[in-house]
Amino acid sequence: VNMNFTFCVLVLLSGLTLVQSVAETETSAGSQSCCPGLSLFHQELSAVKTKLEAVETQLKETESQLLVLKEKEALKVVFSAATGGNGAIGPFSQHQTLVFRTVITNIGSAYNQHSGVFVAPVRGIYYFAFYYHASGLHPSYVHLMKNSNIVVLSSDQQTVNDGADNGGNAALLELQQGDQVYLQLVANNHVWGNDYHTTFSGFLLHQV
After folding, report:
1. At what angle do helices 3-28 and 37-74 cross, to 10 degrees?
2. The pLDDT value given to residue 19
3. First-to-last CA distance in the chain?
4. Mind listing the pLDDT tens digit for each residue in 132-184?
5. Residue 168's closest CA among 156, 179, 181?
6. CB-based contact 110:121 (threshold 8 Å)
7. DSSP letter at 186?
8. Cβ-based burial of 191 (10 A; exposed 0-12, middle 13-18, buried ≥19)
């Protein structure tokens, strides 16, 4: 909203209020009998003032809406992390949450490098992607989880002739504030952990 225009509206309202006050004073003092057009002028002045007050109200509402939009645009949530280490993660006898301890970026601090869990700070549309490296000696099976539900997965079977496997997946999710997103390594499977191969990333696309 143009602040100069808003200022002009406020100045016009102040001026009209002053003119209307003078007109009312003259009317009450008996000037109406010598100035027949004063009453009509007073009515037209009141109509203009009403319209300007309506414009002022609309401007305030628009300014409030713009402020909300600016606050939404100002919120940045971006993270990317790797598992760290230098060796196989798993196999385990039970499902395990994969923890990505080597943080590449974590703007907004929504990802917890100690638990491996991303917690949505606001309701919105988010993008998540994961990639893993693994040896062919054991199968690999990884879930992208939203709270306790599987969203997408990636897997690879154990092979004798293939010495290394790579996999991954991605998804767009609508999350509520407080929803949790993480990667789950399925029991009796493994991935290879280091600072470069097995990664988990995501970002806020926009609020809703």
Report:
1. 150
2. 54
3. 23
4. 999 877 889 999 999 999 999 999 887 777 678 899 999 999 999 999 999 99
5. 156
6. yes
7. P
8. buried
pTM here?
Answer: 0.68
3-class secondary structure, 109: coil
Strands 118-119 and 180-185: antiparallel
What backbone phi and psi angles, to 5 degrees, belong to 84? 80, -175
Q: Which residues are within 8 A (CB) of 154 and not within 5 positions of it... i.e. 6 or more apart?
A: 130, 132, 140, 141, 142, 167, 168, 169
Cβ atoms within 10 Å of 181's Cβ, excluding its own:
22
Residue 84 CB partners (closer than 8 Å, separation 6+): 100, 101, 102, 193, 194, 195
**CATH number for region 78-207:** 2.60.120.40
The CA distance from 39 to 146, in Å, is 70
Whether 124 contacts 158, CB under 8 Å: no
**Cross-strand partners of 102:** 82
Asked if residues 192 and 135 have their Cβ atoms less than 8 Å apart, the reply is yes
Between β-strands 102-107 and 118-119, what pairing exists: parallel, antiparallel or unpaired? unpaired
Q: Count CB-CB contacts under 10 A for residue 175.
A: 23
Positions of the chain with pLDDT lower than 50, given as ranges? 31-33
Q: Give CA separation, 105 vs 51, 138, 151, 190, in Å.
A: 52, 31, 24, 25
